[in-house]
Amino acid sequence: MSEYIDGTNCPWIPEKQHNMLKSKQSTQHYSKSLIRLRSKLRLLLLGLDNAGKTTILKSLASEDITQVTPTQGFNIKSVQSEGFKLNVWDIGGARKIRPYWRNYFENTDVLIYVVDSADIKRLEETGQELSELLLEEKLRGVPLLVYANKQDLGHAVTAAEIAEGLGLHNIKDRDWQIQSCIAIEGKGVKEGLEWACKNIKRK
Amino acid sequence: MFKYIWTLVYWYFRPFVKWFLRHTTQMCELQRICYGQPSGAPRAFAIEESLKQSRNANIRTLVAYLNDIADQRRITTKTERKILEDAIKTVLVTKNINPTAHPTFAKSFGKCVELIWGYRQLCVECEELRKTSYSPENPDHEQLLLKLWSLLMPYESLEARVTKQWQKIGFQGDDPKTDFRGMGILGLENLVYFAQEYPSTATHVLSHSNHPRYGYAFAIVGINLTSMALKLLRDGSAKTHIYNSSKTLPMIRAFHQFYCYLFYQFDGFWIESKPSNMMEFSSIQEKFENSIRMALANPSTVFRINVAVDNI
């Protein structure tokens, strides 16, 4: 977190405050901002198109999830959980947009990867995208939460099978967790987020 | 606080003001609106507000009855005449208006009723289409999807139902079935209408979407614009345009037309914004929505696609 202290690397801090933090004129201001900084986290939601990222985002923000559209670009929402203020970034998963994912890696506190458990045809593709993400320098050591979404669908495979398929057990350089969920019913979503928050606290 | 006091004052004094005007002008409020306001949105807005505020039992029953009929989508070209006649008769009797002395009133009031409750019915219809998910098992849905392809890409045939070719018209992967999401069949119908009614505009916009620098995903942006059009319809912002543009009962066509205008305008707005990549979509769309909202805030606004463009 040390690189956040001057605020220059924090996209969520307005320009004005960058200067305030830099000048360090008032130590009181400084420490207050520091506390606020530490409790504002950046979560990055990635995954293939139609995995359910936007539905998970809306579910976290307690918004209507019946009218989701395919994400062209990205969505961002601020959510409160476990005393943390979370900025959740949901980036579109279409093949054409995936090259832009890297623009959002910086300062990520938790990487959330969403998998459509019923899309068996593309399990290999999603595994490949994930393994490429895990090699990214900017995401090194960032805890990984995998949502095995759409567990309500008949032909969905279990979270354990997904963990196996993605090779999660071979990950040694970071904490990871897999959480089965049904985003459209809001089931399992909060549980995953709780893990994410606890994991940051422990650090 | 001021707003609260104002509503209170308004609520108490409205009947006195109305009573006074009624006796000085010899006309009821509905008549004054019909004669005083220009036709289209300004008149329909005022009539809508007046009917909503009315404390007269007959008028209240009439409003509840019309709401009910619209919610059940029972206003059709066949039933419409009778419904409007009933509504007009109720007002004539309740307000003691002599129809021979005020022939234009009945006509103009009927027109407003048609617009107001046609719009309400349109909201219900769009919502039903939206709730109908795209289903690959439904032959109608599949046919509509294939129709969209042949309209947009007349010189190229699909090699298979599931193919990468779909990305050429801006779907995300090789099967569009998962791209309609929460917009359901409404999203597809909007796209098909655009491609069918404005073929050259649609292909013109499609070619823009393949621009090497300012390109975007045509179908996906289209589905997002369905969502935006629906939002504007639902919160009533689209009333201005629909009231001003409808010569007859507003039906699904009116929504499709509104959508086509938004798509055509968005395309221009996007290119003018010179986005560095597709990731700017949300912010540009937000700006676009604000500009449309500003335009709709003017009660005389009516959107028309420039037909000249369609002939280029």
UniProtKB/TrEMBL annotation, chain A:
It holds the Pfam family Arf. InterPro entries: ARL2/3, P-loop_NTPase, Small_GTP-bd, Small_GTPase_ARF/SAR. GTP binds at G47, L48, D49, N50, A51, G52, K53, T54, G93, N149, K150, Q151, D152. GO terms for biological process: establishment of localization in cell; protein transport; system development; vesicle-mediated transport. Keywords: Golgi apparatus, GTP-binding, Lipoprotein, Magnesium, Metal-binding, Myristate, Nucleotide-binding, Protein transport, Transport. Belongs to the small GTPase superfamily. Arf family. This is ADP-ribosylation factor-like protein 3.
From TrEMBL, chain B:
GO terms for molecular function: GTPase activator activity. This is ELMO domain-containing protein 2. PROSITE patterns: ELMO. Residues 140-296 form the ELMO domain. Signal peptide: none annotated. Transmembrane segments: none annotated. It comes from Camponotus floridanus (Florida carpenter ant).
